Structure prediction request, 64 residues.
Amino acid sequence: MPKALDLDRPKRARTTFSPDQLYQLESEFCRNQYLVGRERSQLAVKLGLSETQVKVWFQNRRTK
Prediction:
């Protein structure tokens, strides 16, 4: 059964970004809308986030 259809597992907690994290994410987004590889991992470490959180934030921001 795919993970998305597993209704018994608890939902993952929504990430709450601090104002400083949002400022830095927005600043980077203004410079480059597509962050990959080393750039993404460096930003994640700098902000104390996982690469996946940074990746998803950029995906959501592009959609917005």
About this structure: The mean pLDDT is 89. The CA atoms of residues 41 and 51 lie 6 Å apart.
